[in-house]
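Margin note: ligand = iron/sulfur cluster.
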Amino acid sequence: MLEDYLLSEKLPLFWCAGCGNGVVLQSILREIDRRGWTKQETVIATGIGCWGKADDYVTTNSFHGTHGRALAFSTGIKLANPSLHVVTLMGDGDGITIGGNHLIHAARRNLGVTAIMVNNLNYGMTGGQYSGTTPKHSLTKTSVYGHIENGFDVCAVVKAAGANFVARANTLDVIELNRLIGMALDHHGFSFVEVISPCPTHFGRNNKMASPAKLLQWIKDRCIPAARAKDMSEDELNGKFVTGVLADRSREDYSTAYQRIIDRLQKEASE
Ligand code: SF4
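Resulting structure:
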């Protein structure tokens, strides 16, 4: 049961009303439960930020690391014990801004972990500064006249770096969110899901969306399913979030390649 994975004494959640983090956490725990993974064989690793608080609420093994380093710690955990299911939770600050280098190298190595990046389009915990995914022209605490940079297409970066599975979802369509997180958990090699998620307290307020519902509508208007996006031009897709499965391949994962060398060396030593 989902409740078995939640530390009920820690409730209510720390997150603001209208925040998408709780939606994503329940989806991850539900899909872990559906797979029957025990708490002992599951590790949830986090970094810093609002989403990085998620490990506070789970009964599985957990590891709370420094900002941007969730994937570095996950690499060590997975290599030390490849039989563990390692699920890495990162925000957009943690995942692609401060931690961007770890993300591209985990994807390049095809490390056997699942990374779920909640993209709320700004640094929520520190007060709403722009991050590497903040859309151009957005208003944040550090771009009060409009953001002049382009935000990363994180899924395109991770796909180009070599991840086996890449998908994008949002917190409005929970059935699709569950499906994509489930596919990522089942996939061998590096699997990555970016979830476009509302931060009404900062991104919403700073961009003149007075209620969480308005921000949800803003997200909904910008999410385009991959099947529809393939018939749209680059200009039409500018500022949009293409959702669904964006990469699905079966390259050998890092732990398998690493184990093969260990096996070979042990065999040579015993001959
Ligand atoms: S500041 Fe934003 S991201 Fe952080 S808990 Fe509040 S709504 Fe969620």
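The chain has a mean pLDDT of 96.
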